[in-house]
Amino acid sequence: MRILGVHAGHDAAAALVVDGEVVADAAEERFQRVKHAQGIPFHAIGWCLEDAKCPALELDAVAIVDGVDEVVQVLDPGVVPLRHPPFDLRRFAVGRQTEVVHVEHHVAHAASAYLTSGFAGRTLVVTCDGVGDDVSISLWRGDEGVLTPLASLDASASLGWFYEAVTEALGWWSWDGAGRTMGLAAYGDPERAAGALDTFCPHFEAGELRRGVPELGRRSGVAFQGQEHIHFELAHAIRLQLARCGREHLAAEAQRLLETELQALVLPWLEREGTRQLACAGGVFLNVKLNQSLWETAGLAAQHIYPNSGDAGLAVGAALYAHHQHAPSAPNRRLRNMRLGPEHPPALLRERLELCGVTYDEVDDPAETAARLLARGGILGWFQGRMESGPRALGGRSILMSPTDPKAKDTLNARVKFREGFRPFCPSMTAEARERYLPGSRPEPFMVTSFPVAEDRRNRIPAVVHVDGTARPQTVEREIDPLYWRLIDLLGRETGEPVVLNTSFNVRGEPIANDPLDAIRCFYSGGMDHLMLGPFLVSKDGARG
Ligand SMILES: [Fe+2]
After folding, report:
1. Pairing of β 426-430 and β 474-476
2. How confident is the model at residue 164 (pLDDT cuts 50, 70, 90)?
3. Among 261, 263, 240, 260, which residue's Cα sits nearest to residue 250?
């Protein structure tokens, strides 16, 4: 059973699910090199089918979320009647047996959360985003692989739009700005902005929406380079509060409201459903502090946040949902690896380096070489194996540095990432070391939530500890990613800390590198010292490490 999932809204993406397993997934932005690219993801579709050696003709189904009309235009006219076929767009001739189905936005989010959780027994599934198909929040019962709707709320309940409106009021754009608001919030005191945002935020009590904010449903704005300002009116109104209370305090209050309102919605539903298992998706759950707060307040036995929980994860959700519609008794498998994107063989890596006229060495042991360079203070581009799905670099397309130097964060910001100094960097650590740094945490291979760092460890890895004493970890398991695990383990032998600072391999404002050429370009447009492209090492003159 081969099902192609396609999402053609912002963060367009395609994914292929074969017999219930996600075998390929990539966002269109990685190919077009425009963040959050929207429209028909024809590069991503083409790549998925080629990678899995699955001709479109053999697909059993295409499951489409947003943009059904657009996507249908690139499918075979023999199956789907075409009104105005695009002349110069790549097309995919699907077979007569290929079913074309529409999966609603929040159904796809819910499926991406539940059907990758691997949870047995009853599970509360929560989706929360800006708005999709007129829904901003939905709650589901997941049981025996089947999703049953419990409640759904319209745009007036949109905690996602509330947070984005505050983000725009702070002077940032929707989509990427929310992470800045969250980073800044840790520096503020919500008490100093008490009441400032009450009229803008939906209010929940006892699992129900008590007061919606109709203005959240009104959108007006502009788009620029994949980012958007979509809440002009609300953002202007919120901005008036800034002079009174200050940026970091307003951000802190927005974060506090997001956490407390979602708790007021979710906790009673856990009670009602009699479960301590929670699975979440939707862009709001990219907020790791929110996820931490649910873990700390809800008495959960298990929490699963789909790592690609923004709209780029809808393609996977739609395809998994369609699969389970066809095979209701199919197992609910836990997704253990997000490295689902393109991989480039060494011959192609070499070809790209030769094309650019770059001097390089081939090394026998990339992990050992990288660990040595990092231990000596180098900033290293690490391009290995398959690209990650989702917004976090997980050791496939990463920029790495040893986190033991207190100045590492400033160095990286000044030389490579060119971003605000208040935003934290995150650690990858061996699964074996987790308990030492993050006591009482749980294995988290995808950087989806944060945990408090043990007090006696904070000054040992200062570059990856946020100002509030937490870190957003990737715990790396040896059998899932042996190469990356070994790099971290070897670094630990040199520095005493089996932890590496891991940030995404991209130029500011661009998507994560996909092709080796993206990585080479990124390497030479900033202050990285070394690039480990598969087995090939490129070092700059005067590089550290
Ligand atoms: Fe969404």
Report:
1. parallel
2. very high
3. 240
CA-CA-CA-CA dihedral for 55, 56, 61, 65, to nearest 10: 130
pTM attached to this predicted model: 0.96
State the distance from the centre of ligand 1 to the C-alpha of 465, rounded, in angstroms: 30
Span from the CA of 282 to the centroid of ligand 1 (angstroms): 5
End-to-end CA distance of the chain: 49
Alpha carbons 342 and 51: distance in angstroms, whole number: 8
How confident is the model over 6-16, as a mean pLDDT?
96
- Lookup: tokens for 473: 């970890």
For residue 453, the tally of other CB atoms under 10 A from its CB is 25
Query: Is 10 designated active site?
Result: yes
Centre of ligand 1 from the C-alpha of residue 291, in Å = 17
Average pLDDT over residues 405-418: 90
SS3 letters across 283-300: HHHHCHHHHHHHHHHCCC
For the segment 407-413, the average pLDDT, to the nearest whole number, is: 91
Q: Which of 7, 10, 249, 344 is catalytic?
A: 10
Task: List, as own/partner pairs, every contact residues 216-222 make where C-beta atoms lie below 8 angstroms and the sequence separation is at least 24, other chains included.
Answer: 216/136, 216/155, 216/156, 216/157, 216/158, 216/161, 216/162, 216/165, 217/131, 217/154, 217/155, 217/156, 217/158
DSSP helix, strand, coil percent of the chain (3-state; round to 5): 35, 20, 40
Where does residue 428 rank: exposed (0-12), middle (13-18), buried (19+ CB within 10 A)?
A: buried
Residues paired with residue 408 on neighbouring β-strands, in sequence order: none
pLDDT tens-digit profile of 341-383? 999 999 999 999 999 999 999 999 999 999 999 999 999 999 9
Going by their DSSP bridges, the two strands 123-132 and 277-281 should be labelled as parallel
Reported as a pLDDT band with limits 50, 70 and 90, residue 508 is confident
How far is ligand 1, taken at its centre, from the CA of residue 66, in Å? Answer: 10
Domains belonging to the chain, first-starting first, are 2-107+317-326 (3.30.420.40), 119-305 (3.30.420.40), 346-539 (3.90.870.20)
Span from the CA of 444 to the centroid of ligand 1 (angstroms)? 23
